[in-house]
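fold-stage: in
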Amino acid sequence: MKKRIIALAVSLLMAAPFANAEYLGLINGRSANPGNHPDLSVELGVIVGDLGVVDYQIIGARVNYRLTPEIVVMGDVGVSEFGEADGTPFGLGILYFLSNQRISQTMDIAGKASYHRADYKVVSGQGEVSNLTFEVLVSGAEPISANGVGWYGNVGYHRLNVDFGNSDSSNELGFGGGLTLPTRGGEAYAGFDFTDEMTFGLGFRYYVQ
């Protein structure tokens, strides 16, 4: 059994950087401009992927709150399966909108930082996985279709730590993107994230009035 736990830890370390742009959390699925959303929103989402070593999926919920016109704080929690291991990841994040950027008038740009952790359990043991992420999030300043469809993209750095008795870490770069669609009462989104493997995610953001 000890060998199985060690193998799981190695699998997590090898595959986790490829899981998604904000490992242990949902895909971004949003505009970089907080002004495109109300002050408070809640969302549900799912991520699935075959990481080559193990299958991965997460179902999660996220709350977003706009503190200022430029700053959004967020918190999320979910349930996750990583191969034979089950976990309950949770995390916090902050987004800062670059309202005065001069790079492009056709794009909105923001910086985002987040931290997530989870305890994964197997039949006879458990281990901790944590991830620190720094991303640049970009999105179109205007919709790309008459029904309001928008696009977003992200690129970021990830510091992943895995501790299943023996601690190890990895540094990775990842990128992703997707589409958003305004709906009655909120916004639907779908996208992907990619490093060496690809995962897909979708969700719905409800606007709390």
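fold-stage: in (second)
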Amino acid sequence: MRLRLHTNQLAIRILGTLTGLGFLAIGAYAVFGADDSVAVASRERALWFGITALIGGVWAVGVSWLDPELSGVWCRPPRQPRDLRPPR
């Protein structure tokens, strides 16, 4: 299987990458930022929040460049009720 980096919709891909980098920064700070002055329960909570944010950041950066069509990932249009949909 060959992974291909897509370059269409460049502005959305760059914004998705910046969002992912923000999640990575917050996750890294949550994992490595606590010291011994913080309660053990708070450190554990921060650790798991940080791990979750790191996973989300990796996902955001990866999907931003590997998914060929981003309209359903970052900019999904809102659903319309059935009575407001245009006729076919």
